[in-house]
Each structure stands twice: as C-alpha cells, then as structure tokens.
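Record minuted for completeness.

…
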Amino acid sequence: MTTPFSRELRRAADKIWGAIHDHPFLQELGFGTLAMDRFTYFICQDYLYLLDFAQVLCMGGAKSLDLRTLEIFARHALIAVEVERSFHTAFGKSLGLSPTQLDQTPKGPVTEAYTKHLQAVARSGSLGELVAAVLPCYWIYSEVGRKLYRNRPKEPKIYRQWIETYAAEEYLKPVHEQIRLMNHLGAGAKPEERMLMRSHFLLSSRYEFLFWDQAYRQEKWPL
C-alpha cells in the first residue's frame, strides 16, 4: 500500500515540528506563564500574516482545475479574511489594540520573509507546490492546539481561548481538506515536482518555527 504523500512530508519535517512543540513560546503558553508582551507581538504579526496568506489562497483558487478545488480555496481565503482576522481583532481588543494599530504594525523580519516565500511559490509554482507551502501553517496550528488543549491553563483566559480555537473540530475540517488535497496532488506529481513540494513544505515548517521564535524574542529590524 502506497504511503500518503502528506505522511511522507510530515515524517521529513518531524525534527522541525518537534522543535516547534518544544519552543518556550508554546511551552509557556501552555502553562499560562508566557509574558503577555510576547503574546501581543505574536497576535500583531499573525494578523499581518493572514492578509498575505489569504491572497496566496486566492492564487490557489486561480490554479484550480475543478470547481471543488476552487471552492475549497475560495472558502479558506474567506475564512482567513473574515473569521481569522476578526478573531485576531478580538484578541487585539482584549490586549488594548485597535484595528488601526494592528494594521499599522510593521511586519517583523520573519513575517516578511515567510510571506514572501509563500507568494513566490504561489506565483511561479504548481498547485501542488502551493499546497505544500501553505499546509504547514494549517497542520502545525492544529497539532499545537490539540497538544496544548490537554492541559490548557485556566488563566490567562486569552491563552485558554487561543488554544481552544485551534483545538476545535471546526478548525480541523479545513486542515483535513488541505491534507487530502496534498495527497491527491502528490500522488499525481512527477518526481521532480514532488521534490519541490517537499522542499516548500520543509521551508514553510522552518518559517513556522522562526515565527514563534520571532515572537518570543520580539524581534525587530536592526536598521
């Protein structure tokens, strides 16, 4: 029996994903001890990231060869714009940030690099390459949410709410849709395309690690 391509990718990225789960940002978030200024930095950067992410998903829709795939990307882009960004706006309000302040926050170095990577793949790559590049964002947040949910903190309430959002079955549905799409596209891809898909998946996984690390260090441009 052929191993699903998504499982091959997940296995290749296991060391990176293990480092993500062990990162102090997520460890401290799970214990409820994460400094609030680090979480605030993360929410601001994630809010900015989502606009680029939604645009990349729209490009996925443009590359789709059937209505079912187009519908998935259109719906996921709408979720990123309406649901996710409103979710981040609500968190921003709880943290004392207005939507204007969120919009005017400058992108951190990792946010800039990560979104440029996604845009480059979306512009020049195949649909399979695009899915491989965006899948770590979907999948890692689901894994993180479900892992932290087991011992989620009661306080601060905002940390508990964040964990519960990404552990929810509602969030898991689009994750599974992208995984199934990855398996379908991977099965039909030529070896050279599969190598590119693997490369994009691993690089996006590395950027996911760096995104948490950037927030923990509250990284700013040196100049």
User: Anything to note?
Assistant: Residues 5-216 form a domain with the Heme Oxygenase; Chain A fold (CATH 1.20.910.10). The mean pLDDT is 95. The chain has one domain: 5-216.
